Amino acid sequence: MKKIGLFLALALVIASCHSGKKNSVALSGAGSTFVMPFYTTAFQKYTPLTGVKISYGGVGSGAGIKSLKDRVVDFGASDAFMTDAQMAAMPAPVVEFPTCSGAVVMAFNLPGITTMKLTPEVLADIYLGKITNWNDPALAKINPGVKFPNLPITVVHRSDGSGTTNIFTNYLTKVSPEWKSKYGFGTTVNWPVGVGGKGNPGVAGTISQTTGAFGYVESTYAFAEKIPFASIKNQAGIFITPSFASTSAAGKGQMPQDTRIMITDSPDSAAYPIAGFTWVILYKEQHYNNRTLAQAQALLKLWDWMLDPDAQAVAQQIDYVPLPASVVALDKSILRTVTYDGKPILQ
Amino acid sequence: MDTSIFQRGKTETKSAHLVRSWKNKIFFSVVLLFALITISIVFLIIGTLVAKGYRQINWSFFTQVAPDTFDAMMANASGRLIPGGILNGITGSIFLVAIASILAIPIGVIIGIFLYENPHKRYANLIRDIADVLQGVPSIVIGLIVYLWVVVSVTKGYSALAGSVALAIMMLPLIIRSTEESMKMVPESLKEAAVALGTPYYKVILRVLIPSSFSGLITGILLAVSRVLGETAPLLLTTLGNSSVNWNLSKPISAVPLLIWQFYNDPNMVNMIWSSSLFLMAFVLILNILSKWIAAKKSIQ
User: Fold this and answer.
1) Distance from B9 to chain A by nearest Cα, in Å?
2) Which keywords are on file for this protein (chain B) (predicted)?
3) Could you tell me if B70 lies within 8 Å of chain A, comparing CB atoms?
4) Mean pLDDT, 10 residues at a time, over chain A (347 residues)?
5) Interface pTM (ipTM) of the complex?
C-alpha cells in the first residue's frame, strides 16, 4: 500500500513536471458569472487556434477584482466598472475595457399573460412598494386589453452583490428621484420590498415558480428559460422590447476614454433602457511576479481576438450583444497602452 | 370477565393497562414516522436525481469535457441531449483527492497512532482537541486560508495544489480520529504477545497494530475521501475550474462540484446539473457502501 502510494506520488510529480513544459502558456481569469458562458465558449474556440489554454472561474465580479488585486489571475471580469476608490486600492495601475453588453429584463409570472408594457414610473413604484397588486389601475391604464388578476405582486431581487443589480438600480436612480434619494444604486442596495434570490439562476427560478412574481434578470436567463418579460418605455417615449437590436442601440452612445459608462436610460429612440456593459480588467504594466513576455503577449493577443468579429459573433450566438465598432476601436487602443517593461506589447 | 386483566398483572387495572398500551403504540408510531421521514429524504434525493439526470448519462458523459454554451443551446432548441460530458470534472476530482490523500493520510495515521499510544498525556489531549476544532472549521474558511497560504504565496495563481491542500486539511481530523478509534479495537493481548516475544516497538506498530486495524483505517480514509469529494466552497477559492483536462499541479483544475456550480450559472446547462449531481451522489454512495462493507468484514474476523 505504502509503496503504491509512493509510486503514485512520484508518477504524479513526474507527470506534472512533464506537462508543465509542454504547454508553457496558460492564462487564467476570474469574476463575473453573468458573462461566463460567453467567455468559456469563446475560449474553447480560441484554444485550438493558438494552443493557449485559458481557465475562467465564475466567482463573482467582486471576487474577480480581488483575485486580480492579489495577482493570482491574469485578468479580472466585472459587470460593474471599477470605482476610483477600487482603482486606488489596486497595487498597480490597471486598464479596463468592455467586452460585450447585455440587457436586464423585467420578467414576470402571470397565468395567461405573455406581454406587458411598463413605464419607468410604474416600475419604480412597484420596487418602492407603492404598487402591490397586479390589479392596480396604473398597470391597467398602460396595458389596455390585458386582464390583470387580483393577485399580490411578489417582487424579486438579488440577494448577493451583483452587476445586474448595479445596472437595474442605476436605471431606477435615473428615472425616479424618490428612489435616488432613498436607496441609490450599487451592486447591493437596501431593498424596501421583495424577496431575494441568489444569482441570476436564483431570481429566474423564484420567478418561474411563483405565480404573481416580478423581478429583474439578465436577458440570457429569460430567453433560455422562456420566461415572459415586459417592454419598457424609454426616454423617447416608445415602448421597447429587450432584444439584440434594442440592447445594441443602447450601447451606441458616446463612450468616454476610460470606458466607465452606464448605458441605462439611453436617449436613443430605438434603445432598450435597462442595459449595461461587462468589463475586463488587466494590469497596465505586465511585468510583475516574474511573468514572462510570452505570457503577457498571450494575454493581450487573447483580448485583442475577443474584440474581433469572430469572437463577437460567439457573443451574439448565445444572446449577448456584441460591441459597436466605435467601442471596439476604443478598446483596441486601450489594449495598446498595456506594456511590458514600459514597452507596448501589441503594435 | 376480569380474568384476562389478572393474567397480565395483578396490580394493573384495565384503564391503566389501556393507557400503557396506547402510549406504547403512540411512541412506536412516532419513532416509525421519524424513521420513515429520514429514509424518505434519502430516497427522494436519489429519486429526483435519477429522474432528472439519467438521460444525460451515457458514454460521452464520461469521455468528453464540459460542453460550451452554444452547443448546449443548440441542443436544447432542437430537443437533443446536451453534447459532451464532465471528463474534466471527473479527472480533476480524482487528481485533487489523490494528492490530498497523499498529503493527509501519512500525517493523519501517524498522529492517530501517537494519540493511541499516549492516550492520557497532556499533549495528546491537546492534539485531540485541536483535531476536533479543525473538524469544525467551516470549509469556506479553510478555502480562504489556503487561498492566502498557497494561491497567493506559493503557486501565485489558482492551482490544483492549493485545492489539494484545502481538501487535505479537511481530511486530516477525520483520519486522525478514525485511526485512533480503529487502533483501540485491536485486542491489547495481541500487542502484549508481540512485545513479550521481544519485538522492537516500531515493529509492533508496523507489523501488528497497523495490519490488524487495517480495515478500520481504510474505512476511515474512504469516509474522509467521500466527505471531501463533494466540497465546493474551498475549491471555488483555490482551484478556479478548467474547461479542459489538467494533470498539472500548478495550474487551475476543474472538479465535479465546481462543474455543477458552473452549470447552475448557465441557463442552457440545466440538464447537466442533474446528471453531474447524480454522478457525484452515486460516487459518494459507492464509497460509503464500500467502507461499510469493509467495516462489516472486519467485525466478522
Assistant:
1) 60
2) Cell membrane, Membrane, Phosphate transport, Transmembrane, Transmembrane helix, Transport
3) yes
4) 52 48 75 88 92 88 90 93 91 94 94 93 95 94 92 92 88 95 91 89 88 92 88 94 90 86 91 94 92 93 95 90 91 95 89
5) 0.73
